[in-house]
Structure formats: structure tokens, C-alpha cells
């Protein structure tokens, strides 16, 4: 469903969907990246509730991971990555595209999961295949940097009961500068999903 819909016109499977807690994110980053697939990202702003199914993620593994922003240590930009799990790390690339990550693991590790692509579920009229397009469609920008991912206006709902799809592991995109880390299979996506940014 790509068109804007009435606020009360929710898909039936959302009725009993459980909201993910901080404990879900306070775990191994690769595990979180895989288990987020099929879950539902929800952002409420300006009277509109936007929902998309997460179909592609990337794991960033902290200070040793040369592709991670946190590899440079704690800076004003990356401080949020070193904080508690379950908070949003939002940054701008190329001066125009926002990207959103959810911080994972215990404080001090600098780990996070990038949300790369969504399958539109509700009120997402734009393209959602790629982290910048995802944020634009969801109405996400730097104002949500440091925001609680377990709040009423920004959260993730667990996969609906019975939902399952094979998961593909591939190298991350756009991190050729990261040496041997560029080849690590830390990008995860739902096999066969048409909204994945790159097969």
C-alpha cells in the first residue's frame, strides 16, 4: 500500500503487534540486524503515521570496524553511538540525504544497525529502497538524532506472527574504503523482496 490512507485505516496485522523494547537492541549487533528484517518501522509526525516493513539492514560493529563512524572514536557526531542501545543515530550524507541507525549493544561499544530499505505498509508514497529514500519517505531527519527508538512517535513493531522469509547475507554498500571490512557479509536483506536497494 503506497498511497496516503486515513489514520484509522490500519492493516489488521498491526492490531496486536508488540513494540520492540530497549532489551531487543541491547544485544549482538549482527543478531539485531538480522532479526529486524520483517519488523515494522513506525514514525508519527504532523498528524500522520508512516509505517514500513524493514527489508534490508547493515550492521556496524564499533571501533574496530573501519566502515563504522565510531571507528574514529567518540566525537560530537558519534557520541550517540556509544550511548545506551535503542536510540536513533541520524546523520546527513552528501549534504542532502539522511540515514537512520538504531544503536545496539552495551554502552561504549559504538555499534549500530543502519536501516537500508523498507517495504511500504502505510502512508509511504515515495520510494523507500535505500537509506536516504527511506528517511525522506518516513519524514526522518536530524531532528530525530538521539531520539528514543521506543517512544510513541518513533518505534519498531515486532514481526507479525507467522511472518518468515529467507535472509541473504552480503557485503555492505559504499564502504570500499574500509579495507578487509568492506568484504564482510554484514548487509542483510529478505530474499526476493522487490524493495531491497541492491540485489
Question: How would you characterize this protein structure?
Answer:
The chain is mainly beta. It has a single domain (17-190), classed as 3-methyladenine DNA Glycosylase, Chain A. The protein contains 3 helices and 8 strands, in the order ααβββββαβββ. Strands 1, 2, 3, 4, 5, 6, 7 and 8 form an 8-stranded antiparallel β-sheet that branches. Strand 3 (88-93) and strand 4 (97-104) form a beta hairpin. The radius of gyration is 16 Å and the shape is globular. The two termini are 22 Å apart. Mean pLDDT is 93; it is low at 1-8.
Topology at a glance:
Layout: H1 22-25, H2 29-35, E1 40-45, E2 48-61, E3 88-93, E4 97-104, E5 111-122, H3 131-138, E6 154-157, E7 167-170, E8 187-190
Antiparallel strand pairs: 1-2, 1-6, 2-5, 2-8, 3-4, 4-5, 7-8
Keywords: DNA damage, DNA repair, Hydrolase
Pfam families: Pur_DNA_glyco
EC number: 3.2.2.-
Amino acid at each position: 500500500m503506497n498511497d496516503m490512507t486515513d489514520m484509522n485505516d490500519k492493516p489488521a496485522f498491526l492490531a496486536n503487534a508488540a513494540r520492540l523494547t530497549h532489551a531487543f537492541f541491547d544485544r549482538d549487533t549482527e543478531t539485531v540486524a538480522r532479526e529486524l528484517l520483517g519488523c515494522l518501522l513506525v514514525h508519527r509526525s504532523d498528524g500522520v503515521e508512516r509505517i514500513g516493513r524493514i527489508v534490508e539492514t547493515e550492521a556496524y560493529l564499533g571501533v574496530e570496524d573501519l566502515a563504522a563512524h565510531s571507528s574514529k572514536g567518540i566525537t560530537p557526531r558519534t557520541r550517540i553511538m556509544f550511548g545506551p542501545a535503542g536510540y536513533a543515530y541520524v546523520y546527513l550524507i552528501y549534504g542532502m540525504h539522511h540515514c537512520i541507525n538504531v544503536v545496539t549493544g552495551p554502552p561504549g561499544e559504538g555499534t549500530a544497525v543502519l536501516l537500508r530499505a523498507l517495504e511500504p505498509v502505510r502512508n509511504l508514497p515515495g520510494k523507500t529502497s535505500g537509506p536516504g529514500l527511506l528517511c525522506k519517505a518516513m519524514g526522518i531527519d536530524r531532528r530525530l538524532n538521539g531520539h528514543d527508538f521506543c517512544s510513541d512517535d518513533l518505534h519498531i513493531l515486532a514481526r507479525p506472527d507467522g511472518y518468515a522469509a529467507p535472509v541473504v547475507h552480503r557485503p555492505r554498500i559504499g564502504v570500499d574504503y574500509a579495507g578487509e571490512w568492506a568484504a564482510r557479509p554484514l548487509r542483510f536483506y529478505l530474499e526476493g523482496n522487490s524493495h531491497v536497494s541492491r540485489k
